[in-house]
């Protein structure tokens, strides 16, 4: 999943949006919406895959981002949000056996804070 900050900056430099000042550079954006939008798109892809019965794994490139993007011929002005791996789940394997699945869970009252502000 890739984000393209320059596309957003270019769009907001056009006459109908120039007054926002967001076309002057990525540093002018209070929230990097290219990251937000790419993240939402990644989530929707994953949800659609799950609805179709596929297994899904989302993972980040971490320290290897530049090498992976270069190997794939991705332009330097793109940012990697993460990778989505899709496949048919192995019905014989316990998919909840990972380290995070065995961690103790916090009490619901510690996680949900509706009406406490």
Structure description:
The protein is α+β, with helices and mostly antiparallel strands and 117 residues long. The protein is built from 5 helices and 4 strands; from the N terminus they run E-H-H-E-H-E-E-H-H. The strands form 2 sheets. The chain has a two-stranded antiparallel ribbon. Strands 2-4 form a two-stranded antiparallel ribbon. The longest helix has 19 residues. It is extended and about 55 Å long. The protein starts with a strand and ends in a 6-residue tail after the last helix.
Order of helices and strands: EHHEHEEHH
How much helix is in the residues? 25-40%
Q: What overall form do the CA principal axes indicate?
A: extended
Main structural class: alpha+beta
Radius of gyration: 19 Å
* Total DSSP E strands: 4
Straight-line N-to-C gap = 36 Å
Pick out its properties:
117 residues, alpha+beta, two-stranded antiparallel sheet, 12% strand
Give the helices and strands, then pairings.
Elements: E1 2-3, H1 5-12, H2 33-51, E2 55-59, H3 65-71, E3 79-80, E4 83-87, H4 99-102, H5 108-111
Antiparallel strand pairs: 1-3, 2-4
In summary, what is this structure?
This protein has 117 residues and is α+β, with helices and mostly antiparallel strands. It contains five helices and four strands; from the N terminus they run βααβαββαα. A two-stranded antiparallel ribbon has the order 1-3. Strands 2-4 form a two-stranded antiparallel ribbon.
